[in-house]
Amino acid sequence: MLTVAGYVGYMRHALGKTPDSRHVLLDTLNAAGRYLFQCHDWTWKMTGPVDLVAKADQDWITLPVDFQNCVTIYIDNTDGNTASFTSVQQVDLLKLTRFKQDQFDNTYAGAFYINFPLWTQPSQGQSQMRAFVYPTPETDGQPTMKLIYNRRWKELDDPESTEYVNIPVDFEQTLKLLCRAFALRMENPESDSADRTMMEANLHIDKLKGYDGQRQIEQGPLSGGVNSRTQLRPDLQVGIATL
Questions:
Q1: How many domains does the chain have?
Q2: Which among 18, 49, 75, 126 could bridge 146 via Cys, Cβ 3.0 to 4.6 Å?
C-alpha cells in the first residue's frame, strides 16, 4: 500500500508540474480521504473494542484519534478494579452538566455517565477528541471501559510520513483516483481530466459498495450448521403439523 508520502508524490506526478503555491497536497489528500469515508457506511469503519481508561480527578477521557461515533461501550470488570460501577449510560451534554451542578439527582447507583461529542472537531489546542464523564473518577482505571466505535478519516499532518492511511487495501486504487481528481480540480476548476477521473472514482466506489455488502457480517449460527433453521425438517418445525 502507498504511504502518506506516496499519495502526495502520486498527486504531484499526476499534475505533471509543481503545484500552485496555494495548493497544499496534504490537504487535498485529507479532503479525498474524508470524501471516501463519508460517501458510504462502510462495514470496515467499525472497530474495537479499545480501552478507555478513566483518570483520577479528570472529568474527561481522551478518545481514539480516528473516533467518529460510539457504537457501544461497556465496563470491563474482569480485573475487579471497577466493581463500584456496573454500567455506562450515554447522556447529552446538558444532562451531564446538570448532574455536575446538582440541579437534580436522577442518577442510578453504580452507573457511570458519558457524553460523546456530536462533531469530530478537536477544540483549539486539543489534538484529540474528548468524552466528558460523571461522576469524576477518584482512582486511575476506575472504571476501565471497552469502546466499539465507527472510525473517521484520520487527519494527516506530515506530507513525508511513511505511515499508511486507515483504509483497507481494496480501497487504495479508489483513493488514488480521488486524490488525482481532487488535485486536478484544485489546479484547474475547468479540468475535463478531473471530471473523467472523478467519474471513474465514483464507479469504483459503486463497485466497492456491492462488494462491501457481501462481506460476512451476519451473526449467529452459520448456514448449514446443526442450529440453522434452514436445515430443520418441516415436520419438526414448531407450528407445522404433518399427516
A1: 2
A2: 49
Rg (CA), the chain: 24
Residue bearing cell 499508511: 164
* Strand 67-75 to 144-151 pairing: antiparallel
CA–CA separation, 25 vs 183, rounded Å? 7
Reported as a single tens digit per residue, the pLDDT across 6-18 is: 999 999 999 999 8
* Residues 162, 147 within the same domain: no
Q: Within a 10 A sphere around the Cβ of 65, how many other Cβ atoms?
A: 14
CB count in 10 Å sphere of residue 13: 10
- Backbone dihedral region of 68: left (phi > 0), alpha (psi from -120 to 50 degrees) or beta? alpha
The closest alpha carbon to 40, from 182, 181, 167, 183, belongs to 167
Q: 3-class SS at 66?
A: coil
Asked whether residue 179 falls in the same domain as residue 163, the answer is yes
pTM summary value = 0.78
Q: Are 165 and 175 in contact (CB under 8 A)?
A: yes
